[in-house]
Amino acid sequence: MAGRRNILVLLLFSLCSAQSTLAATEAESACREARDSVSQQIKAARLKGDISQRAALETRLQSLTERCRGVVPLQPNHDEIERASRLATEREAQLREAIGTGDPQAIEVSKRRLDQARKQLKAAKR
Fold first, then answer.
1. What contacts 12, CB < 8 A, 6 or more positions away?
2. Is the pTM for the entire model greater than 0.85?
3. In this structure, are residues 33 and 64 in contact, taking their beta carbons and an 8 Å threshold?
């Protein structure tokens, strides 16, 4: 009787272990597919020469990779900080593009937008 109970407990334990392994495999597969999709979008943006889109996608890929590895954000407003960080990165790329054109008005507008994005990021980090 005790032998049967031990076998039943071992059988249940092995089934539970197998279920968690299957769930982990499905999660890894979903993460891999999402990362591959974003990577393809990054390649397309690189081919188009779209620097701001590429920067935003690279930030998204990094965030996705962290999430898939199980990194838990320490700050309660992590999403707000991440959004502000992405915006600041995009604004930096836009400023570089404006500097590349040499248009003083576009450069000034880009500088103001970048300053505003950096202020939002600083406020989010508080």
1. none
2. no
3. no
